[in-house]
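Incident log, support desk, overnight shift.

02:14 A customer reports that sequence design results differ from what the structure should imply. Their input is reproduced verbatim below. On-call engineer (initials T.W.) acknowledged and began investigating.
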């Protein structure tokens, strides 16, 4: 069931998500969102980590693709160092 509520933005650009919506979605302090704006609409999409099983599958697929491409652990470490130096 949808819950509709109103809120307002503070002078710092902060918006409070009403309590009934936080409870319905089981949101806790520190929850992260993607914010999408389209014309006069703002959408907050909750970012949640994938379930461990799904993450493990993604990791296995990434490792397979890296091996297929001939990447080695040293290549990844070099790439990380290069990016960190450029910042």
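02:41 Re-run completed on a clean worker. Output:
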């Amino acid at each position: 069931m949808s819950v509709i509520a109103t809120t307002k933005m503070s002078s710092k650009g902060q918006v409070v998500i009403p309590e009934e919506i936080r409870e319905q979605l089981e949101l806790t302090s520190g929850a992260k969102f993607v914010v999408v704006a389209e014309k006069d609409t703002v959408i907050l999409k909750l970012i949640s980590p994938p379930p461990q099983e799904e993450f493990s599958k993604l990791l296995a697929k990434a490792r397979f693709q890296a091996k297929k491409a001939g990447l080695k652990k040293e290549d990844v470490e070099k790439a990380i160092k290069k990016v960190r130096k450029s910042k």
